[in-house]
């Protein structure tokens, strides 16, 4: 008969005995079955879990949702550390919760840093309040816009910001912070530029169509002026990376060009009236705008007319096309002075 050969005893391995991790509970062969439930943990353990629960049920619609979540996670981790250290003497539970505590503290610090109050320069606060805040531009975004590649420059009375046919329009875009500037064409007064408005918005718009152009007007400081100035190339690159801010600038520049067209064709406006943002256009302005539309509609080269308007060269041509235009403006000027 064949018999099974006996194996050497050194081939057998002995499985070590692992005692129960819970004192007082006997070791059982089936780890999934509970022979005896352990007693309830200390109150710190339950408070820690309660903090985690509250953090998870905070509605996301709450403004401080993430900050409250991180605070409750920090509280829960701190309670677990105290419970594991003082009542369980369990090193691994304590170490893991210390790691969680540090990570949540870093997140909380970053969230609080993002919500810190932004200090806008006193000279720029008026521009932000009047132009950017109504369009819901955050203070942090405005600070980025004005802090990276924006400079504040000063012009004394009589100094020129731009000279017609000499100064390039490709260099900068500026907003007047203080003072008043005068715009003229071949020695003829066109309009004034007041605080919290763009100085060269028509040129900025026309530059998007044709590069390498020169100013068609002369812009002179009527009094000591202070303005903030962007490098046009860097500003364009920055706006291309931020769609929201790009749309804000399109709106502001379009509105500024419209205001300049109204003031261009209504020189009888007083300084106080011209500074108002929301004003009704005069009859003189309405006629001018209608002539612009009719000119653009009646010509086949619409782009050339638009470019001419944006470059500031439309005033003379529009006046010449309507012989009675100046008479209407004069009549309206007399009517305003007479209080009619």
Automatic annotation (TrEMBL):
Belongs to the popeye family. It is a multi-pass membrane protein. Residues 314-340 are annotated as: Disordered. The chain crosses the membrane at residues 93-113. Residues 328-340 have a biased composition (Basic and acidic residues). Its main location: other. Keywords: Cell adhesion, Cell junction, Cell membrane, Developmental protein, Glycoprotein, Membrane, Tight junction, Transmembrane, Transmembrane helix. It is found in: Cell junction, Tight junction; Lateral cell membrane; Membrane. One of its GO terms (cellular component) is bicellular tight junction. GO terms for molecular function: cAMP binding. The gene is BVES. SUPFAM superfamilies: cAMP-binding domain-like. GO terms for biological process: cell adhesion; heart development; regulation of membrane potential; skeletal muscle tissue development; striated muscle cell differentiation. Residues 41-266 form the POPDC1-3 domain. This is POPDC1-3 domain-containing protein. InterPro entries: cNMP-bd_dom_sf, POPDC1-3, POPDC1-3_dom, RmlC-like_jellyroll. The keyword Amino-acid biosynthesis does not apply.
